[in-house]
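Summary for the steering committee. The consortium agreed at its last meeting that each partner would contribute one worked example illustrating the joint modelling workflow. Our contribution is presented below. We chose a case with several input lines so that the handling of multiple components could be demonstrated. No manual editing was applied between input and output; the record is shown as generated.
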Amino acid sequence: QKEVEQDPGPLSVPEGAIVSLNCTYSNSAFQYFMWYRQYSRKGPELLMYTYSSGNKEDGRFTAQVDKSSKYISLFIRDSQPSDSATYLCAMSAWNDYKLSFGAGTTVTVRA
Amino acid sequence: NAGVTQTPKFQVLKTGQSMTLQCAQDMNHEYMSWYRQDPGMGLRLIHYSVGAGITDQGEVPNGYNVSRSTTEDFPLRLLSAAPSQTSVYFCASSYSGQADTQYFGPGTRLTVL
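What follows is the complete predicted structure of the assembly.
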């Protein structure tokens, strides 16, 4: 079983819809939770960063972490065609040598 | 700042050939790492370095070597290429480690025939 499981998608939504992305994990030591966005044939770039449990909002993006359920989510409101990309969740324990990534969910927002 | 740069962008090798993927960063980051990305597998750590002269293995180190002689450069060497090493390779850097924001390069697409 993988340490981090991510809904594989792909997701296709109309412009303006809410996009919901999720990951589950098995390592209870994870404390740092991130979402990276990767456009086609580009390197990933950090989108959201959350430490421990709770919610974080940045513009149209909201990240949620529920450590009791070992579940994290990313919501994109008022989605735009420019949001079309692959979204990767990533997480790490304190002082860990590596980030554990989900496999990624590819999202297409239709104009 | 150029950020993280990688060369080449594309490469085709025959089984058994060796090559070096280049990675450089101009942000004075201590931490650098190499990942490979395969469909359905996400990003997997190959090797990492916490500073010049210090390297260590990640999840999937077999068949790869690294060295870190300067803060800026972190080359990845394929010793004897195998078809299983066909992948997209990303170099990343950060100020202080894996829990810090990772800055990724544009990637190298490698095909081994």
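Chain A is about 0% helix and 60% strand. The CA atoms of residues 36 and 47 of chain A lie 5 Å apart.
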